[in-house]
Amino acid sequence: MKALHTSVIKAAGLIAALPRALAGGLIAVLLLLTFGSGAAAAPIDQPDDSASLAGNNDLQGILRIMEDKDGSLTPEQAAAPAMDALYEPYSSSGFAGTLSKSVYWVKLDLYNDAARTRDFMLELSKPQLGKVTLYQFNDERKLSSETVTGRRLPFYDRSYIHRNFIFHLSFAPMSGEKLYFKIETDTFLQLPMKLWDTQSFLEKEQHQDLLFGVYYGIMLVMALYNIFLFISIRERTYLYYVLFILSFAVMQAVWDGFAYQFLWPDFPGWEVRANPMFITLTGLFALLFSLNFLSVPKYSPRMARIMQFFTVVLILALPAILLLSPAAGTRLAVCLSSVSILFCLGAILAVRFRIRSVFFYIFAWIVLFAGALLNILAAYKLIPLNFWSLYSIRFGSAAETVLLSLALADRFNGIRHEKTLEEKQGALLKQLHETTKRLTSTHDLDELLQFTMTSLSKITACEHGFILLEKEGGYELTAQTGAGPWYGLNAAEPESEAFLRRLIVEKQLILLSGHEDLSLPDPLARTFLGIPILYHDRMIGAVVLYSYFARRITGNERSILRDFAGQVGISMENVRLFSEINRLASIDGLTGVYNRSHFLKLARRHLAQCRNTGVPLSLIMVDIDHFKSINDRYGHLMGDKVIQETVKRLAELAQPRGIIGRYGGEEFVLVLPGVTAPQAIRLAEIMRKSIAASPVSMQGQSISYTISLGLSSLGPDTHEITSLVDQADRALYLAKESGRNSVKTL
After folding, report:
1. CA torsion through residues 288, 292, 293, 299, sign
2. Across residues 299-314, what is the average pLDDT?
3. If residue 651 lies in a helix (H) or strand (E), which one and from where to where?
4. Chosen CATH of 596-745 out of 3.30.70.270, 3.40.720.10, 3.40.980.10, 3.30.230.10
5. Which region among 275-284, 314-323, 396-405, 692-701 has the lowest average model confidence (pLDDT)?
6. At 41, is the pLDDT very low, low, confident or very high (cuts 50, 70, 90)?
7. 289, 292, 474, 557: most buried by Cβ count inside 10 Å?
8. How far apart are CA 655 and CA 523, in angstroms?
9. d(CA 221, CA 217)
10. Maximum distance among all alpha carbons in the chain?
């Protein structure tokens, strides 16, 4: 009971994080184990033909242990017959799970009654033991062999390079050996010891390697996935979650022995302190993750302040753990992590179920705790030790990692959904009426302006009107309704009209009616309304409405019109940005000509038209000679300048019918609708000579260079633009092979 109590205390950090509702779920998990069966065990002295010898032998049931509090016993003293009475069964000794400075002597008697020599592998699956010394005595209690291992020694000093402690045992026919283990540890004492024949050991290793690979692969994938999300959306919760996954995975790797084997095999001093360090880091990042994931500051500021204070305590404890002895550091780490998990539970109680993510969060911890509890119960043989119970902690932690990742995704979707609702509500408030929705859904400026004109005409009941749109420092008439501009308005210079000039200068809604003491632009009209279209206080247009009837527009209606016009300004800017994005998507950023994909799209269209109408079409591929040398010698800025100047000259010479695009790097391609092959050859020669005769200068440097050109022309068998490009490319290759600075055609 003492051992069980101690191990349960070790697991308190996991147990404390779960609500009372765990019990029902845990019972369901336990029921699954009734379908498993424990591993069969066989003593070493069974006959050769015993099938159970192919399995593993759990030795914990026959181990006997003695505590050497001051560590003064020698191997001969510990193995003396007079000391046998001081050894007690390990399973009932109460030493399992203790954390003490004492040295423990473990006795194991094995006998081979077979008529042949038999070899076995003894595995001690507790990589955290500080120092393990095996003394082998024969039947006469004569010391025959001594083997020293443990994590206080460099990893590669071991006889077998394995994460656990492996000892090779060879038994002569009809003989036995007395094995005495001297155990020195600065962590919790556990002696999971098994005896394997070589075949069973290799099979076990294959299965475990697969399982461990899957487990750590899941942890790594989840960490990478969420770090990419953090980089993309800059949400700190994802960063804390990644740090929690990594610290938990490394903590588990320390327990499994992989960390010492692969991460720091030459640093035993760090190995003995890695366990408490990563226990503390796991508690720290679990606390930070819970604090942010559950939005504790929003729902419980007091609990948030307490948790934030304890995170500082955990951070300050990290250097203290390095200064303390490993045993004291382990006690401190377990205590602090247990408290941090209690705070995670407190966060759940503080937030309650006001956010849906709490359900995922609780379930994830339930799964992890269930896995840990099953592992503890199996360790004390309260349930069968089978595949599920042996690796339940790993199944639980992997499932918890996936569930918390799903919870993060659900939380992100919830936040995005809330923001979308807020944006929609804000848009509805700004738009003020249903018709504005259409303004935000179109990317066609003419359609947007015409819809704006029609809508405002209906709202104000002004049957005539038009829209002025800013263009190149002036304004031009665009959409109109009814009669459009009134009689006598100079459509070429609308700013010359006093009413419009006032509207442009004041940038305020202007309403003129016939009963006011003002002269109207059109004497026959009774109502004039000018509404500026603004974007960030910049006037980008104006809506002008007028009616030959008196129209009454209240103050609220004026406010509605101003808001409506503001939404129109936003919509117009969106249309402009959309058009600009489309333009940029088709243009090469350095040269300003079409990029490859858009050029091929246009070229296909021209190819189809020329084939259908019988018009000739030619294509020229251009490559700058020795461009890499230009970059290497003069720098990339000069290289960019050469590319820009080349494109500029090619475009000028290809006018008016040629279309040019950047095909890649220093390669360019021109499609020439209506140009025959001989004409294209002459044009290519002109381009070649022009480039050769026109040096490029920049910052006092001047460089002369040449180009090579390959040509192809539309033929009766040409159906795809890629065929022309391929022919021209092969011709270009011939031009470069023939010495460059030339024009070639197939």
Report:
1. positive
2. 91
3. helix 636-654
4. 3.30.70.270
5. 396-405
6. very low
7. 289
8. 52
9. 6
10. 131
* Average pLDDT taken over every residue of the chain: 80
Q: Which of 711, 746, 707 minimizes the C-alpha distance to 728? A: 711
Q: What single DSSP character describes residue 62?
A: G
Domain at 206-415, CATH from 1.10.3470, 1.10.10, 3.90.25, 1.20.1070? 1.20.1070
Which CA distances in Å does 405 have to 224, 225, 503? 11, 9, 56
β-strand 707-713 against 743-745: which pairing, if any?
parallel
For residues 214 and 354, the answer to whether their CB atoms sit within 8 Å is: no
E strands, 449-572, where? 464-471, 474-481, 510-513, 527-535, 538-547
For residues 383 and 30, what is the distance between their CA atoms, to the nearest angstrom? 9
Q: Is the dihedral of CA 643, 645, 650, 652 positive or negative?
A: positive
Strand, coil or helix: 465:
strand
Report the topology of domain 53-196: Immunoglobulin-like (2.60.40)
Q: Is the pLDDT score of 188 beyond 70? A: yes
Task: Burial-class residue 690 by CB neighbours within 10 Å (0-12, 13-18, 19+).
Answer: middle
Radius of gyration (C-alpha) of the chain in whole angstroms: 41
What's the pLDDT at 118? 86
Residues carrying an active site annotation: 666
Predicted confidence (pLDDT) per residue in 364-388, tens digit: 878 877 777 776 676 566 776 566 7
- E-strand spans in 574-658? 617-624
CB neighbour list of residue 299: distance below 8 Å, 6 or more residues apart: 350, 351, 352, 354, 355
Q: Decide: 3 and 97 in contact? Cβ < 8 Å.
A: yes
DSSP string, 354-398: SSTHHHHHHHHHHHHHHHHHHHHHHHTTSS---HHHHTHHHHHHH
> In Å, what is the CA distance from 68 to each residue of 78, 102, 126, 149, 574?
9, 6, 20, 19, 81
pLDDT digits (tens, 9 = 90+) for 491-547: 567 767 778 888 888 888 888 876 554 456 677 788 888 888 888 888 888 888 888
Q: Which CATH class is domain 442-584?
A: alpha beta
Whether the per-residue pLDDT at 394 is higher than 70: the answer is yes
Q: Residue 660: what pLDDT? A: 93
Q: What is the pLDDT of residues 643-674, one digit of tens each?
A: 999 999 999 998 887 899 999 889 999 999 99
Whether the predicted pLDDT of 401 surpasses 70:
yes
For the entire predicted model, the pTM comes to: 0.51
C-alpha to C-alpha distances, 111 to 117, 149, 177, 336, nearest whole angstrom: 11, 24, 6, 47
DSSP-derived secondary structure for 225-289: HHHHHHHHH--HHHHHHHHHHHHHHHHHHHHHTHIIIII-TT-HHHHHHHHHHHHHHHHHHHHHH
Interatomic CA distance for residues 60 and 191, integer angstroms: 7
CA distances from 718 to 216, 575, 599, 715 (A): 55, 39, 18, 5
| End-to-end Cα spacing for the chain | 92
The pair of three-digit structure tokens given for residue 374, joined into one six-digit string: 């099953």
- Distance of alpha carbon 298 from alpha carbon 70, whole angstroms: 55
Q: Give the tens place of pLDDT for each residue, 547-580.
A: 888 877 766 667 777 777 777 877 777 777 777 7
Assigned token pair, 212: 């461990």
The reported pLDDT for the residue numbered 439 is 62
Residue 145 structure tokens: 């062999």
